[in-house]
Amino acid sequence: MRLFKSRKKIQVEPNELFSGKIDHSGISVPDIDQAVTFFTEVLHFEVIKRIPQMRGPVSGMLTRGMGVYENTKMVGSAFLRYGGDEIELVQWSNEKQQTKIPNPADVNSAHLAISVSDIKEAMEYLKKVPGVTVRDYIPAGFFYISTPWGYEIQIMSKDTKK
């Protein structure tokens, strides 16, 4: 396996190098406080850590290290846990930032999937949450919701994968 453009080939077996686990998944949100409130109060995630706005000369570091636009500000972020797994919510600010909500079929669109103990009860509960769009139930054991800011979440029965 060739990892870098060099004269020497580095021989590393992928199963030796990449033998960890997914640590977390990051989701860019338009309003960090709204998103944390939704995930904690509506979906019952647990806040692990809140990171306030990064101040000072961090823009270059964020551009080089994370690939964001020059002069991007990280308004705030939060790490949340659900069933032992973690997500990171982050709010960025930059005049070049794209705000169009992608269609689920668009390249690079994404969704989060969570399991619940009672799919029908979850569907009825989420139909009552203001700003949430609840999509039709799929007989394979799941349905999708769209958050108030347009992020797609798949709600699955715990029994779906059995």
Describe this structure in words.
The protein is an alpha/beta fold. It folds into 2 domains: 22-96, 2,3-Dihydroxybiphenyl 1,2-Dioxygenase, domain 1, CATH 3.10.180.10; 104-162, 2,3-Dihydroxybiphenyl 1,2-Dioxygenase, domain 1, CATH 3.10.180. Helices cover 20% and strands 30% of the residues. It is built from 4 helices and 8 strands; from the N terminus they run αβαβαβββαβββ. It has helices spanning 14-17, 32-42, 59-66, 119-127; strands at 25-28, 46-51, 73-82, 85-93, 111-116, 133-134, 142-146, 152-157. The strands form 2 sheets. The chain has a 4-stranded mixed beta sheet with strand order 1-4-3-2, with helices on one face. Strands 5-8-7-6 form a 4-stranded mixed beta sheet, with helices on one face. The longest helix is centred in the first third of the chain and has 11 residues, at 32-42. The two termini are 36 Å apart.
Write the layout of secondary structure elements.
Elements: H1 14-17, E1 25-28, H2 32-42, E2 46-51, H3 59-66, E3 73-82, E4 85-93, E5 111-116, H4 119-127, E6 133-134, E7 142-146, E8 152-157
Parallel strand pairs: 1-4, 5-8
Antiparallel strand pairs: 2-3, 3-4, 6-7, 7-8
Distance between the termini: 36 Å
The radius of gyration is 19 Å
Task: Tell me the CATH topology of the largest domain.
Answer: 2,3-Dihydroxybiphenyl 1,2-Dioxygenase, domain 1
SS elements, strand count: 8
SSE string: HEHEHEEEHEEE
CATH superfamily of the largest domain: 2,3-Dihydroxybiphenyl 1,2-Dioxygenase, domain 1
Share of helical residues: 10-25%
Content of β-strand: 25-35%
Structural class: alpha/beta
CATH class of the largest domain: Alpha Beta
Count of discrete alpha- or pi-helical segments spanning 4 or more residues: 4
Query: Biggest sheet, open or closed, and with what strands and sense?
Result: 4 strands, mixed
Per CATH, the architecture of the largest domain is: Roll
Which stretches of 5+ consecutive residues score pLDDT under 50?
Answer: none
Q: Average pLDDT value?
A: 88
How many separate structural domains? 2
Q: In one word, what is the shape?
A: globular
